[in-house]
Write a structure and sequence with these properties.
mainly beta; 22-stranded antiparallel barrel; 5-stranded mixed β-sheet
């Protein structure tokens, strides 16, 4: 019961919202709580859990999710084009479709994408309060798509008036306006943000591609809550985004990446509504969440259109005894997609789940079990157990073992663009298991902390498109080491370090997995004064194998740095400035696609 008051408070404040990337002298690591675990849990007790809070997002000057997720150890962000190019995440070497993405608890993975992966290219962070990352299989909590892990975004609740404006390189302009009111009984807020840039060539300019490819994105959102009484409360949110990106393609006769007039437009929204009620000694949550995506593209005169949508219906009950916190519930997840080939399919899963946490003395134990019954691909039971033991002296030893699964996507289920002779193989869900062990340490004054993690992730029956059809054939393994640390250095300075070694291999062929660098790391030196604050972030990636048309090529490693600063002119007006790619490094995140050279931006923030 040593942390029961903290956990109970967190449970009431955020039921769907994982060590923190920034902290002050009043905040120690034990105070950082994650709620994507369904039962609020302390980060230090939860292997693979990390939080990026709003203060860190603001300090880094991150505009899009892809700008900051790459600093999380074990996450590999690939972006095919600097502005608006498809941006996907690989967690611990797992393919992008194996990361479940939640916005206020609503699953938003693209049901029409071949692997079911989420595209972060237009995901702005202006309305995001915190990002929680749970690495490793989390199917026992969230079902399908969570083999690599879960990334959960929580939107802000606004009180007062907020406005931002920024302009800079490549004729880039960005603006945001938000307003809201909040008190103990109710809260309501809304915002609108817009980003517009002429951009750079998606295909690397160094390869003779000078045409600039622009990008435009608009996001609107609203959030609200109301307490009818101490026993019954309602809340909900909605988020809408529309974007258009100029892209480059692979024109004849060479079919190599080059300047073209390709474009892609997407429109997506997500939202949830929830009723929370106390009855029979339990805290009940009844929620409905949904997301919808329409995407169209034009390439060499040929158009394609994809639509996908997802709905989740959930009842969850949370309770506690003297030493045990627990949760259980029932879910129904439905997904459908209409593909450009004219094929479409509905896929659904019905699930029951339970998770419990035992916390007494120096020991914390957590276990979860989930049964998923798919309408088309059988049933699967997954589980996860973790333990953390306080070794004294600030050390915490923790470990976890978990299993996961991923049901075939719509594209795989209908065998989109398959040309092999019938009958096509009958697909089954992909499965995974993972084990990890971590050693963390926090100084007695809370000024220093760190954690080292070793893990192994195995994926079986991975679905692969080969010889004109989809088959369960591939086996992959990722062995990894993750190291992270934070320090308050005094005089307003703080330092954050992160490093990941990832040995990701296709066990079927013996080849390294594509777009997963073996070495990656970042360092951020922050400073906060009376009126001035800033952060210098240096990020590095080693060489990685990538796709070069019909062969595997090596994308060279790189080191790049960003500088962000803010000056509080008054308590209501803040001036901002940031410089990206400080050393004007020429580099690529994805082979063939260039990234911007040195670029600068200035702006202003108003808060009333």
């Amino acid at each position: 019961m040593k942390r029961s008051i903290l956990l109970s408070t967190a449970a009431l404040s955020a039921a769907f919202a994982a060590p923190a990337f920034a902290f002050d002298e009043a905040t120690q690591l034990d105070d950082v709580v994650i709620t994507a675990t369904r039962i609020p849990a302390i980060v230090a007790d939860t292997p693979g859990a990390r939080v990026i809070d709003g203060k860190t997002i603001e300090q880094r000057g991150a505009i899009f999710a892809a700008d900051i997720l790459s600093d999380v150890p074990g996450l590999s962000v690939t972006r095919s084009g600097a502005f608006g190019g498809v941006a996907q995440v690989r967690m611990r070497g797992a393919t992008p479709g194996k990361t479940l993405v939640l916005v206020d608890g609503a699953p938003v993975n693209d049901a029409a994408e071949p692997n079911g992966a989420y595209d972060f290219s237009s995901f702005e962070l202006a309305d995001i309060e915190r990002i929680e990352v749970l690495s490793g299989p989390q199917s026992s909590l969230w079902g399908s798509d969570a083999i690599g892990g879960v990334i959960a975004f929580t939107t802000k609740e606004i009180e007062g008036l907020r406005a931002e404006a920024e302009a800079g390189s490549f004729d880039t302009v960005r603006g945001r306006l938000a307003a809201g009111v909040a008190n103990e009984t109710y809260a309501v807020s809304a915002y609108v943000s817009h980003f517009d840039t002429d951009g750079i060539s998606a295909a690397d300019e160094a390869d003779g591609n000078p045409e600039a490819d622009g990008f435009r994105s608009t996001t609107l959102g609203a959030k609200g809550r109301y307490a009818f009484s101490d026993l019954v409360k309602v809340d909900g949110s909605a988020r809408w985004n529309k974007s258009k990106a100029d892209l480059d393609g692979f024109p004849a006769p060479n079919y190599a990446l080059a300047d073209t007039d390709d474009t892609q437009e997407s429109e997506q929204w997500s939202g949830f509504g929830r009723v929370a009620a106390k009855a029979f000694g339990l805290n009940h949550q009844f929620s409905v969440s949904a997301s919808d995506l329409d995407r169209s593209s034009v390439s060499d005169g040929f158009g394609s259109t994809f639509t996908g949508d997802r709905q989740a219906y959930r009842w969850q009950a949370n309770g506690a005894t003297q030493d045990i916190d627990y949760a259980f519930g029932v879910e129904r997840n439905e997904a459908s997609a209409a593909l450009s080939s004219g094929l479409s399919r509905d896929l659904s899963i019905t699930s029951v789940f339970g998770v419990a946490q035992y916390d007494v003395g120096a020991l914390n134990l957590t276990g979860g079990l989930r049964y998923d019954d798919t309408d088309d691909f059988g049933s699967k039971t997954t589980g996860r157990v973790s333990a953390a033991y306080d070794l004294a002296g600030g050390f915490i030893l923790s470990g976890a073992y978990g299993t996961g699964f991923k049901s075939p996507t719509v594209s795989q289920a209908v065998c989109d663009y398959c040309y092999a002779p019938l009958p096509w193989p009958e697909l089954k869900p992909e499965t995974a298991d993972s084990v990890e062990i971590a050693l963390g340490w926090t100084s007695t004054d809370g000024r220093f902390d760190g954690r080292a993690t070793l893990y192994r992730l195995n994926v079986e029956d991975q679905i692969t498109y080969t010889a004109g059809r989809y088959i369960n054939v591939a086996k992959t393994r990722s062995d990894g080491f993750e190291l992270e640390g934070r320090a308050l250095l005094g005089a307003g300075f703080d330092l954050t370090l992160a490093y990941a070694w990832t040995d990701a291999e296709d066990r079927t062929t013996g080849a390294r997995l594509l777009r997963v660098p073996e070495h990656a790391g970042s360092a951020t030196l922050g400073w906060t004064g009376d009126r001035v604050s800033g952060a210098l972030t240096v990020r590095a990636e080693g060489d990685q194998d990538d796709s070069g048309g019909f062969s595997t090529v090596a994308r060279e490693g790189f080191v790049t740095a960003n500088l962000n600063a803010a000056y509080e002119l008054t308590d209501k007006v803040t001036l901002t400035a940031r410089i990206e790619n400080l050393a004007d490094e020429h580099y690529q995140q994805v082979f063939g696609y260039g990234e911007p050279g040195r670029s600068g931006y200035v702006g202003v923030r108003l808060r009333y």
